[in-house]
Amino acid sequence: MVYLQNKLHLVILWLLTISFGEAQIADEIVVNTRSDDHPTIAFDYWVSQGDVPANQVLLLIPGYNGSGPRMFTPQWRDFADKYRLVLLAPTFTTNMEELKNHQGYYYPDQWSGDATEDALAELGRRENVSTDKILIFGFSAGAHFAHGFALWKPDQVKAFVAYSAAWWDDPTEQLASVPALIMCGEADPRYDATWQFMDKGQALNLPWVWRSYEGTGHEMTAAVQRMAEAFLGHYASGEPDSPYYGDIQSYRYVTPDKMESIPPQERIRLPSKAIAEQWMQEN
After folding, report:
1. Are the C-beta atoms of residues 87 and 58 closer than 8 Å to each other?
2. Which of 97, 187, 196, 233 has the most neighbouring CB atoms within 10 Å?
3. pLDDT band at 18 (very low <50, low <70, confident <90, very high)
């Protein structure tokens, strides 16, 4: 059951940045959950500005116990404006004891997924935006939720980005129609677990893109942001795939007629030239 908090919610975003003191007005949705430990969850949302109304949703999931409104960075707001998106971000909390027991918000099939669907339903009513197919970006704990939600409700996910989770649920063939970008820094202790998840996806021929970054630890970087935007922008735009093929060892890409020049175990499909060009950069 949804508990509606119909009030204007003032969010102070990223103080002490280039845009010091800038405030952005966003609305808040508060939903009830099935969790005794977390009976209500706040979801903040930001609607893209412009003459054309927003028509789809990007769900942004922060790191461990992170603030949802702090996901509304200038970069994501600009991205939302470009593709006419509503940004939706929850403020989830959990603890390690819950996670050890396969509870907590990392696992959408427990309670956080239902809470998210309630928030999406209310967002659709308020803003007249489609929530049938959503885009998702998650970093760290957010990557846990992002891939977990896709496994739980694959038909509701247009595409997702999961960047650097410490452990992963095994992918299944149900994700055959869900494009994903899986990323991790090569200096991040989560690298091996993240690569193993990608490797299992490759074994199932899932439509996934892999990108790692040399010298990068467990941090959000400009390169990661640009790669996520290139990937999600392709699916937000609705443009048909025009694929290229990449070598995950060298990060070079080739046209389809030259795909055989890349060994199958090192080859991934890149859905567009824009994605391929961003993918190749910053080795």
Report:
1. yes
2. 233
3. very low
Q: Which residue has the higher pLDDT, 8 or 173?
A: 173
The answer to whether 186 touches 195, Cβ cutoff 8 Å, is no
Q: Are 160 and 168 in contact (CB under 8 A)?
A: no
Task: Give me the domains of the chain, ranges plus CATH numbers.
Answer: 8-243 (3.40.50.1820)
Q: What are phi and psi of 269, to 5 degrees?
A: -90, 130
Q: Other CB atoms closer than 10 Å to residue 111's CB: what's the count?
A: 20
- The dihedral built from the CA positions of residue 239, 140, 109 and 195, taken in this order, carries a sign that is positive
Torsion of CA 162, 165, 170, 176, to 10 degrees: 10
What is the DSSP code (8-state) at residue 227?
A: H
Half-sphere exposure for 161 (CA within 13 Å, toward CB)? 28
CA distance 114 to 105: 11
The span from the CA of 53 to the CA of 55, in Å, is: 6
pLDDT at 10 over 70: no
d(CA 13, CA 71): 8
CB atoms within 10 A of CB 149: 25
> What whole-number distance in Å separates Cα of residue 268 and Cα of residue 166?
23
8-state DSSP, 137: E
CB 21 within 8 A of CB 59: no
Residue 80 predicted with pLDDT over 90 = yes
